[in-house]
Amino acid sequence: MTNIMTMLMVNIADAKAKLSEYLEAVARGEQVIICNRNQPVAELRAIAPQRTKPRDLSPIFPDWKIDPAFFEPLSAEELAAWEGADDDGLRADRVAEPRGSYGASKKNRPRNRKKR
Q1: Bridging pattern class, strands 31-36 and 39-44
Q2: What count of Cα atoms within 13 Å lies in the side-chain half-sphere of residue 20?
Q3: b/e per residue, 20-30, with b = 16+ CB within 10 A?
Q4: Contacts of 30 (CB under 8 A, 6+ apart)
Q5: How far is 82 from 68, CA to CA, in rounded Å?
Q6: Which letter does DSSP use for residue 53 in this model?
Q7: pLDDT tens string 64-105
């Protein structure tokens, strides 16, 4: 079996002008590379279909048996423990330090006013 894949390289202006054509090409299985001044910056390709059932991990771990409960949602208590909630149900801070102030705040910024 031979799989031939076509790749198109287009500049931003062409991508804007012919987006619907490139989307049709992607739907046919082609790959579109979008360039800025002939330098690749983005890739337009089809998205993978959404998974409807759990992934089979048996080829990777043939001796392991995965309990079906593994795929069930966590209870509220377990979820709170994973998210770091306190006993009060309030969420703990996720950072080790307070948020830094990078630059002066708007109140303390000098204003550039023209002198008349």
Answers
A1: antiparallel
A2: 0
A3: eebeebbeeeb
A4: 5, 6, 7, 8
A5: 20
A6: S
A7: 777 888 888 988 888 888 877 666 655 555 555 566 666 555
Q: Which CATH class is domain 7-44?
A: alpha beta
Distance of alpha carbon 55 from alpha carbon 53, whole angstroms: 6
Q: Which strands sit side by side in the sheet containing 7-11, from one edge to the other?
A: 7-11, 31-36, 39-44
Domain ranges for the chain, please list them.
Answer: 7-44
Tell if the pTM clears 0.70, that is, is over it.
no
The token pair that represents 114 in the structure block: 């023209």
What are φ and ψ of residue 24, in 5° steps?
-65, -40
Instruction: Centre a 10 Å sphere on the Cβ of residue 32 and count the other Cβ atoms it contains.
Output: 22
pLDDT digits (tens, 9 = 90+) for 17-40: 999 999 999 988 889 999 999 999
